[in-house]
Amino acid sequence: MSLQINIKSIAEIAKQKREENAVFKVYLKEQNVKEIDTIVHGLSDKITPQIDCTACGNCCANLRPTATREEVGKFVEEDEIDKYMYAESIVCKNLKDKKCSVYADRPEECRSYPYMDRDNFINRTNGILQNYAVCPIVFNIFESLKKELKWSYTVK
Predict the structure, then answer these.
(1) pTM of the model
(2) N or C: at which end does the chain have fewer Cβ atoms within 10 angstroms?
(3) What is d(CA 143, CA 152) in angstroms, rounded to the nearest whole number?
């Protein structure tokens, strides 16, 4: 499987596929949650080890964790949590030359990113699509999911 890891290409493709991904998101809502989670977890197990996050750092340059899911959940409805998890376009103060200067002691939200091993993928698509343009892991899993489901986009 050939993976896309070029951040600039991923950002450009994300812009081009904005409408396609919105349609795929609607399609996913009609699917079985557990089956999609199983597929996504399998894709994550294959794709994640092939991408060196410490060589990228794009998440640290573009997404800033603001709080844990549990903390945000106290103030926001469950289906809205992903929208509020991050402050966009704020570079992490610990990012030095695309590397985390506190990597061994980074916060749990950073350690868990990009959350592809979590359940309930279908109901987390807002955050996933935000991360799609930022993270090569998310991008490649999302694109691979389309192929795995034999889904194709048709312009209306």
Answers:
(1) 0.84
(2) C
(3) 11
